[in-house]
Write a structure and sequence with these properties.
Length: 784
């Protein structure tokens, strides 16, 4: 089995996948370093808290200075003896502790201060008073530290009530303590919960705790004796303002704006419930994401790589939710998610590009890769033999078979070729020619014997449906360097098409294969052929689907040689392009088309005709001047002319080529992009052309009725072309099924042998044009 081809260009090597993984890793690291998606992180955190919503323990009770209390005691600030009365009433209920979130750092009257101090001293439980530090002013970095006045501190514990909203003004975190007046002081929430932690170390307030489930009792109802205090035994009470007019309110996630005392109680509940778990930051998810993208690089199948990346994203979020629900830890996942999503998108986009790339290198009917793929895989400095096989009457044989029967024939044929060829892979060229590559160092006699045996295998009848198909093979062989792959392929196919009566294979003669003598003969005969009107124009009809009419045609040049008969354009057009003769031939075609259009116009017959112009001529100033001169004399029919160029026509000199097309557009000619899909251009790029029409190459259209890949490609091309304002023409319509499929996709114009073959002007006129100034309706003939 021969394996001398280069690694396929379309196959992702490990090296290439690692490069892509490195690019994805850079995106992940950048996303993490810049904390991209911080807003999304907060939204997802709120979502997780909503999923985990839980009730408070009920051990922390808010004694709220609410609107009713403000109304009951009329003025603010209240006399401090009122707080003493509160403690006296609460002493009867035996709570574990009472914490005040009220500033007692300034003295009031001596009597009031002492009344409150005596109540604190007499209280049987623990009393917590607040300390806090705040900025001295907007223009200084100094701080003012506030502690309760000395008499109140004698029998009370001091606790920090400092809070620190995030940059967006939302309160998310709380601390275990703060240093005030040079002394480390635990936070009020930490003391209420009986929890210790490092001073200045923070924790997230658990927003899954529903603040509405934290018990509240009105300050006034306790003091006036109307409240039932029996349920407060052993509770931790938190006294603070909830009345709106007192202004101690902060924005929090999920719950809008809450009083500060409620937020502090929620922080205490966080500690009581063991929900102050550590925040591991962005690093864990980032490391897992990096491992995933590099792990994906070692997976050969794109589908598996996508599954790994998508699975990693899902696993990160599930793991985060589970970790929080179990109270283990929290971490940030959005930057890693964005990076993984970018990697996923890169793989998808590259996959789409590769699909298009592979499509251009795959024969839709057989599923085999084509000649373009073969030539790309030849090592430039390697020596090869290219073998091609040709079958006599192959087109006629396949034409009588149904679609499934043709597929069966191809499958059997390919299987026999794979078994008997000794090649690593069979390629197909233009549907009818099967080719493969072999090393050039094996003896030619051995190859000849191998091909004789393969010919016998292939010639055995194949059962296809009700048919017994016997193929008559002939092999062509070429030999040379991989750098001349296209030439090798052409020579092998040329040799295969010249059956020998002596043997089943023909060895290509390089000089003959290049057709030197024939080439020189055609070049020498060109001037006489042009002068004797041996060239003529065949018109292939184009059906406008919306009208159901033949309203346009493509002009195709033909050569009726006096001794050789009709010569294929595929024979002489490439030669004339290389030798610079195509200019004169193209001008002659325009002259003939203009003359036919003028005659039809006088007879009241309307038609638009497309004429092909070689890409090499667009930047040829001599040709452009000559064609402009002819167009200047044909003003009456310019509106009926379309100039067709291939999508690669501007690659050599884009600016000059597009300028030339703009000039022709100014004459009134329409511009059509021919053979779309066979080059590397995108529709967006072609939009820079002054073109109004694209023609989808027949290689993508022929099998659109049976190939899902072709259907997807053609449908998307038509849709995007329409979005960009192009009229779409489909070439290669060879049967009713293909016509029906392409019509359903919304194509505008179609052409192909099912619509009509290229015919001389007179025959086209009688078949397709009417004398009433309208194109002939064509739907009846197509459905007949």
């Amino acid at each position: 089995m021969f394996s001398g081809l280069a690694s396929p260009k379309w196959t992702k090597s490990l090296h290439r996948r690692l490069v892509l993984a490195t690019a994805a890793a850079m995106i992940i690291l950048l996303s993490s370093l810049l904390n991209m998606g911080a807003g999304l992180e907060d939204v997802w955190k709120d979502g997780r808290d909503a999923i985990q919503e839980r009730s408070a323990t009920g051990d922390v009770v808010v004694v709220e200075i609410d609107a009713a209390s403000m109304a009951a005691f009329k003025r603010w600030p209240w006399p401090r003896s009122l707080y003493g009365r509160l403690l006296d009433r609460l002493a009867e209920a035996h709570p574990a502790m009472v914490a005040f979130d009220i500033d007692f750092s300034a003295p009031s009257t001596h009597a009031e201060d002492m009344a409150f101090a005596r109540a604190i001293d007499a209280f049987p439980g623990t009393v917590l008073l607040p300390t806090f530090r705040q900025a001295a002013g907007n223009l200084t970095d100094d701080f003012v530290e506030s502690l309760p006045i000395e008499p109140l501190r004698q029998s009370a514990f001091l606790a920090s009530v400092n809070v620190h909203p995030d940059a967006d003004g939302i309160m998310r975190d709380y601390s275990y303590g703060t240093r005030t007046a040079g002394v480390p002081r635990p936070s009020m929430a930490a003391l209420l919960a009986g929890t210790t932690g490092k001073i200045e170390q923070g924790f997230h307030i658990d927003q899954s705790i529903d603040p509405a489930t934290i018990p509240r009792i009105s300050f006034a109802s306790i003091v006036d004796g109307s409240a039932d205090l029996s349920h407060l035994a052993g509770k931790r009470l938190f006294v603070g303002a909830t009345a709106i007019e007192l202004g101690d309110r902060y924005a929090v996630p999920r719950n809008g704006v809450l009083p500060g005392v409620v937020i502090q109680a929620q922080a205490a509940e966080t500690l009581l419930l063991g929900r102050a778990f550590p925040d591991l930051g962005r690093s864990p998810a980032t490391m897992i994401a990096l491992a995933a993208v590099f792990g994906a690089a070692f997976l050969k199948r794109r589908r598996n790589r996508l599954i790994l990346l998508a699975g990693t994203i899902m696993a990160l979020h599930v793991a985060l939710l589970a970790s929080e629900m179990m109270g283990v830890a929290t971490f940030q996942v959005i930057p890693a998610t964005l990076g993984l999503a970018a990697a996923f998108a890169i793989i998808v986009l590259i996959g789409l590009n590769e699909t298009i790339f592979d499509k251009e290198r795959t024969d839709a009917a057989s599923g085999l890769r084509n000649g373009v793929a073969l030539t790309e895989e030849l090592v430039p400095d390697g020596q090869y033999r290219i073998v091609a096989i040709n079958f006599r009457d192959f087109a006629e044989i396949t034409a009588m078979l149904s679609g499934r029967e043709r597929e069966s024939l191809w499958a059997q044929l390919i299987e026999r070729l794979k078994i008997g060829s000794g090649a690593g892979e069979i390629f197909v060229y233009r549907g009818d020619n099967y080719v493969w590559a072999l090393p050039a160092d094996d003896p030619m006699d051995e190859l000849g014997e191998q091909l004789e045996g393969l010919g016998a295998v292939v010639a055995n009848p194949m059962t296809v449906g009700a048919h017994a198909i016997r193929l008559k093979p002939h092999f062509g062989i070429s030999q040379g360097a991989g750098s001349d792959g296209a030439d090798l392929l052409a020579r092998a196919i040329g040799a295969a098409s010249k059956p020998s009566s002596e043997r089943i294979w023909t060895l290509d003669d390089i000089e003959l294969a290049r057709g030197v003598r024939e080439r020189h003969a055609l070049i020498g005969e060109f001037p006489a052929a042009l002068g004797d009107d041996q060239f003529w124009v065949a018109y292939q009809p184009q059906l406008h689907l919306a009208k159901g009419q033949i309203a346009s045609a493509e002009a195709l040049v033909r050569w009726r040689h006096p001794t050789r008969g009709e010569l294929s354009p595929g024979l002489f057009i490439p030669i004339f392009e290389e030798e610079g003769l195509i200019q004169s031939l193209t001008l002659r075609v325009f002259e003939m088309v203009i003359a036919d259009l003028a005659r039809w116009r006088k007879e009241g017959k309307t038609l638009r005709v497309a004429v092909n112009v070689s890409g090499t001529l667009l930047t040829n100033e001599m040709f452009n001047r000559a064609l402009h001169s002819r167009l200047d004399q044909a003003a009456d029919v310019l509106h009926a002319l379309t100039l067709e160029v291939t999508e690669t026509a501007t690659l050599t000199d884009p600016e000059r080529a597009i300028a030339a097309l703009e000039a022709y557009r100014a004459y009134g000619l329409e511009i059509s992009i021919d053979d779309y899909g066979t080059g590397q251009s995108t529709l967006s790029y072609l939009r820079s052309f002054p073109a109004s029409e694209i023609k989808i190459d027949q290689s993508f259209v022929k099998h659109v009725a049976t190939s899902k890949n072709d259907q997807l490609l053609v449908r998307s091309t038509i849709g995007l072309a329409h979005e960009l304002g192009f009229v779409v023409v489909a070439e290669g319509i060879e049967d009713a099924e293909c016509l029906a499929a392409i019509s359903e996709m919304g194509c505008d114009i179609v052409q192909g042998w099912h619509i009509g073959k290229p015919v001389p002007a007179a025959e086209f006129e009688s078949e397709y044009l009417t004398s009433a100034g309208e194109a002939a309706t064509h739907s009846d003939r197509l459905t007949a």
